[in-house]
Amino acid sequence: VESGAAPVAVNATPSGAAVRIASVRFQPADLTVATGTTVTWTNDDAILHTVTSGMSVKKDDFGNYAITADGRVAGEMPDKGKTFSFTFATPGEYAYFCSRHNNMTGRVIVR
User: Fold this and answer.
1) N-terminal to C-terminal alpha carbon distance within the chain
2) pTM of the predicted model, to two decimals?
3) Residue 11 or 68, more confident
4) Residue 45 — pLDDT band, cuts 50, 70, 90?
5) Which of 60, 40, 58 has its CA nearest to residue 104?
6) Who has the most CB within 10 Å: 4, 9, 21, 64?
7) Helix H segments across 5-66?
8) Are 96 and 53 in contact (CB under 8 A)?
9) What distance in Å separates the CA atoms of residue 58 and residue 47, rounded to the nearest whole number?
10) Which has the closest alpha carbon to 84: 109, 55, 51?
11) Number of C-alpha atoms within 13 angstroms, CB side, residue 21?
């Protein structure tokens, strides 16, 4: 490293481009990354989870959700330890949810 040169540290750590799924939650729920970053979701639960881009909004107290998938990101992790990766090539905000558990929501902000 050159003396006086400051390294760019946009999500330079492995956790900066990773989302863990545990206890039926995306962790972290919000993640900010640089354009071109590959984000990897890892399922630490023993049940199927998906990463489905779009919106999942609670409609009522009976467990009903209004869901709208937009087709930009779609992947599934059927078992514990399975992963799904996606490279975000375009800046913007990507809301997502689990299509099996509509209360699970997350967001990737790409700058």
Assistant:
1) 25
2) 0.80
3) 68
4) very high
5) 58
6) 21
7) none
8) yes
9) 22
10) 51
11) 29
**Alpha-carbon gap, residue 51 to 101, rounded angstroms:** 10
Under DSSP, is residue 21 helix (H, G, I), strand (E, B) or coil?
A: strand
User: What sign does the dihedral 76-79-82-83 (CA atoms) show?
Assistant: positive
CB-based contacts of 26, cutoff 8 Å, min separation 6: 19, 20, 41, 96, 98, 104, 105, 106
For 6, 8, 25, 26, 84, the CA distances from 11, given in Å and listed in that order, are 15, 9, 21, 18, 18
For 63-111, the pLDDT digits (tens) are 899 999 999 999 999 999 999 999 999 999 999 999 999 999 999 999 9
Residue in this structure with the two tokens 């869901």, named with its chain if needed: 67
What does the alpha-carbon distance between residue 87 and residue 35 come to, in Å, rounded to a whole number? 8
Say yes or no to pLDDT of 27 above 90. yes
